[in-house]
Amino acid sequence: MSINVTGTIERKGFGPGTWAIVTEEGETYELYQGTPDELLKSGVKAKIKGEVREDVMTFAMIGPVLEVKSFKVL
Amino acid sequence: MRKVFILCLFIIGLGFAIFNFKGLATRGTYDSIVLDFREDVPAAQIAGKLSAIAQQYHVKPFLNSEFSIKDNVYIVKGDANLLNALKKSDLAKQTESIEPNYIYNAYEVPNDPHYTKQWNLRSINVEAAWSETKGSGMTVAVIDTGVSRVPDLKDTKFAKGYDFVNDKEEADDDNGHGTHVAGTIAQSTNNGYGVAGIAYEASIMPLKVLSGSGGGTVADISEAIKFAADNGADVINMSLGGGGASELMQEAVDYAYSKGVVIVAAAGNENRNSSSYPARYPHVISVAATGPAGEKAPYSNFGAGVDISAPGGSETGKILQETIDYQTGEPVFAEYQGTSMASPHVAAVAALVKASGVENPDEIEIVLTKSARVVTEDPLNHFGAGHLDAAAAVKFAQKGQITFRDFFRWLRENGYLNLRFWFDGGAVALLPKIAMVLGSYILAWFLRNYLPGWSWSLSSGLIFGSSGLFFLRGFYVFDLPQWPFRVLGSSIPELGNAIQGSSGLNPLFASVLIPLGLIALLLGNPSWKWFAIGSGIGVASCLLVSAVMMPNVMWLGEGLLARSFLIVNAILCYGLSWLSMQGEQKTA
């Protein structure tokens, strides 16, 4: 399922920490491995096109896992 | 002859009982002996005796404390041989007693220096459980990011594991999460280093399914579950979740369950009204997280599927274990929080329960949930059966060669279609509800002379006024908000607090106002009038029972004020119904 998500990148404090994008509506998506380093900075606002990985589980358990296909820093 | 025979049996039985009685004498340990000299023995004579003992047995007698001078209580280092020698010596004449100086241990407090920071272990009451079992012989599979042998896992036993991410035998950790989780379960304890673990004589089976960045596939996790079941795991811990329903994983869970493995998983960290997968599968114990004060942790999922709660930590206090540093891979003591941390508490206690002799996974779940400390006010099912209690669980397990085996099996058999699901966490306090319904019928009985007979409208009024369809309150459905069930399951007085799910009654609803309105509106209708009258009687009963059993009214507190308010309104409701019926009789 390919979706577009616009929001702010945040580091979430579960385990040693994990990356997420939080939309203005408060939806949290956990960023899947392989997300480009350019995106992995707290506070970055971005528009991400990606796929929700229904077949992936994580220890953070903060929301759907988003595999980034392409993105634009806003 | 018969009497003699019975007497013999009695004496044999008594002898057996005494022989098996584990008094202090058989259990206590001591490395010194107390000499309590008689008070009338002159000090000089005591001094002489003490120096004689010192010479003869090569020991140094000393006063127990500065307060012992008056009572002449002296201590000498020594064992059972010295004790016997002293008892036989002429010392016996000058002393009130010569006895072992037993060492009293309240519970097993480990010598790990950071144990004092582990509030979570004390809050699950683990010390008292340790005096019974430490999980020896059990194997707990940790399906996670792998487990690295940090120094505080040096004395911990390990079973053969597997790395499903990199497909190799060694399942080392490259994140820190899995090692932390393993630490909570079986950190080396009483080793004078670091921190303690809960079932520290159990073995850890490390199964790596999550990559260094913390994600893993359903396929790998399902394989790991099967690996654990096939390689002798007693308990599986999965501090992971997310994604959707997967038949592959459901099958793996069912397979492990059929092999007698207890499966425990984290409820998830979305602060959502539902457990995540895999915690929500049948046969998986879903664990919500609490903070240091036993409150729901802010991030913890709750509601549908949650079976029990355990410490997961919050900003006011996290869970400390030794793990590896994410960046450097070096050992580090780190404080984490999450339902990930709560789940291994339950998995470890499940191992303690199994080590105490309860084998069947259903029975182990029953032991865990029935021994949990119940949270009485839990309308949103934050805590499931309650707070995990290791000591109570172990005690319950030992008591029981479980008689409820057959009774509870059918309770669980069909996943979602079982009673446990409907009454998850025992959220409905049944007793007051039954009292309210019965009360309303008794009140109506007092007015029987005025009643036209028991019509459906009167009965529904009585129920709606007194208790509502209260069983609906215990209804939690995955991914649905719970408040509609609370509203449907509420009586008139409870409607004012049903949506927010608080336990205090809203005084606007818990009063004579609504019955008054209903009667004013419906008095003209020959059938609905009885609904209004019934609801007045029902509300009177509900308010009376609340006043007696749990007076709790918003803004009025839980004391005399709330109680008086409820009683006055109950009388008004009853009077109102009575008055409405007076009119009925005159016109009839």
Give a quick precis of the structure:
With 74 residues, chain A is mostly beta strands. Chain A has strands at residues 2-12, 18-23, 28-31, 45-52, 56-58, 65-73. Chain A contains no helices and six strands.
Characterise the protein shown here.
The complex is a heterodimer of chains A (74) and B (588). By secondary structure, chain A is mostly beta strands. Chain A has a single domain, classed as OB fold (Dihydrolipoamide Acetyltransferase, E2P). In chain A, 0% of the residues lie in helices and 55% in strands. Chain A has no helices and 6 strands. Chain A has a 5-stranded mixed beta barrel. The radius of gyration of chain A is 11 Å and the shape is globular. Chain A starts with a strand and ends with a strand. The mean pLDDT of chain A is 94. Chain B has helices at residues 2-20, 24-27, 43-57, 80-88, 91-94, 119-123, 126-130, 177-186, 218-230, 247-258, 339-355, 361-370, 390-399, 405-412, 419-422, 430-446, 456-466, 483-488, 495-498, 513-522, 528-549, 560-587; strands at residues 32-37, 62-63, 73-77, 95-100, 139-144, 157-158, 162-163, 203-208, 215-217, 235-238, 262-266, 284-290, 308-311, 319-324, 331-336. Helix content of chain B is 41%, strand content 12%. In chain B, helix 17 (456-466) runs parallel beside helix 21 (528-549). The longest helix of chain B is centred in the last third of the chain and has 28 residues, at 560-587. Chain B starts with a helix and ends with a helix. Chain B is an alpha/beta fold. The A-B interface holds A 13-18, 28, 30, 32-33, 53-65 and B 144-145, 175-177, 180, 210-219, 221, 239-244, 246, 266, 268-270, 276-278, 299, 301, 325-326, 334, 336-340.
CATH homologous superfamily descriptor of chain A: Nucleic acid-binding proteins
> What is the CATH third-level topology name of chain A?
OB fold (Dihydrolipoamide Acetyltransferase, E2P)
Largest sheet of chain A, in brief, is: 5 strands, mixed, barrel
Oligomer: heterodimer
**Overall average pLDDT of chain B:** 84
DSSP strand count of chain B: 15
The helix count of chain B comes to 22
How are helices and strands ordered from N to C of chain A? EEEEEE
Number of helices of chain A: 0
Task: Compute the separation of the termini of chain A in Å.
Answer: 23 Å
Greatest interface (CB-CB under 8 A), with counts per chain = A-B, 23 and 41 residues
The total beta strand count of chain A reads 6
Alpha carbon gyration radius of chain A: 11 Å
Mean of residue pLDDT values of chain A: 94
> Pairing-aware structural class of the strands and helices of chain B?
alpha/beta
Distance between the termini of chain B: 83 Å
The whole-angstrom Rg of chain B is 32 Å
How large is the share of residues in beta strands of chain B?
5-15%
Category by helix and strand content of chain A:
mainly beta
User: What share of residues of chain A is helical?
Assistant: under 10%
* Biggest beta sheet attributes of chain B: 8 strands, parallel
